[in-house]
Amino acid sequence: MADLFSMKNRVALVTGASRGLGRDMALALAEAGATVLCAGRTVKELDTTARAIDRKGGRAHVVTMDVTDEADVVAKVAAIVAKHRRIDVLVNNAGIVHRQDIVDTATADFRKVIETDLVSQFIVAREVGRHMLARNYGRIVNISSVMAVLGRASVAGYVSAKHGLVGLTKNLAAEFGPHVTANAIAPGYIRTELNVPLQQNKEFSDMLQRRTAAARWGKPEDLRGALLLLASDAGSYITGHTLVVDGGLTTILA
Ligand SMILES: NC(=O)c1ccc[n+]([C@@H]2O[C@H](COP(=O)([O-])OP(=O)(O)OC[C@H]3O[C@@H](n4cnc5c(N)ncnc54)[C@H](OP(=O)(O)O)[C@@H]3O)[C@@H](O)[C@H]2O)c1
Questions:
Q1: Per-residue pLDDT tens over the stretch 84-125
Q2: Could you say which architecture CATH assigns to the domain 2-191+220-246?
Q3: What residues are in contact with ligand 1 under a 6 Å CB criterion?
Q4: Residues of the chain above pLDDT 70, percent
Q5: Ligand 1 mean position to 114 CA, how many Å?
Q6: C-alpha of 244 from chain center
């Protein structure tokens, strides 16, 4: 059974691997046997991820890539394919949030979130997808959010992008089958730098624990099982799906 979830001989590209969820997903894929290409803008933090993988006996390479820069994505994906001959797994994880009420939000700030959290995923999936289709193999895992299931005040761009990403995932599945699957993970609230203001907000934390069956914030490692399912051969008949990993947050009204 372990072979079903094995990532041996796979090459995985993880965007936003410089910290947070992306760093842990890069580690998880490497521990399962993949060579991981850790992409993001901050070289120092990407190096830290790659070193952590090295220390555990895994294989990692740093790819500096701004997912909002289309020319950069096109060039870097081509360079990866030229060097490694393959990208078996894409984890479209890079993302940002902008917290402000709609009436105060400048259009440019809304657009920036849509560009980073939705348009970039389209561009990276298109560039990597062309290559996966040519090789008749691929696993695309888009990192959406419970904000694709719920709305929430002050994060309009994020909610819109994450809902959009679920739609994009379905379309990638429709167009990229039968050998390339595309799925999304919708994490609940996981402690990372992205949500420090919420971690520091006692009222929010109390609410989260009250209405989550797991009764706690998530940890990056909580996504590992879902990731390996969707990134490995175990997930070969799952496509177009969004797997919510939220400790019960969106299924409980409390
Ligand atoms: N934490 C949660 O509770 C949670 C819940 C649901 C969904 N998510 C989603 O999970 C993903 C990761 O979030 P996180 O919590 O790990 O956030 P984080 O700690 O703030 O990390 C965000 C990552 O995205 C990268 N990134 C941002 N803009 C980029 C760009 N233009 N080009 C390349 N990389 C870029 C950052 O790298 P650089 O700055 O080095 O470029 C960083 O590695 C996001 O899509 C987020 O929406 C998080």
A1: 999 999 999 999 999 999 999 999 999 999 999 999 999 999
A2: 3-Layer(aba) Sandwich (3.40)
A3: 15-16, 18-22, 40-42, 45, 66-68, 93-96, 116, 143, 145, 187, 189-190, 192-195
A4: 100
A5: 13
A6: 13
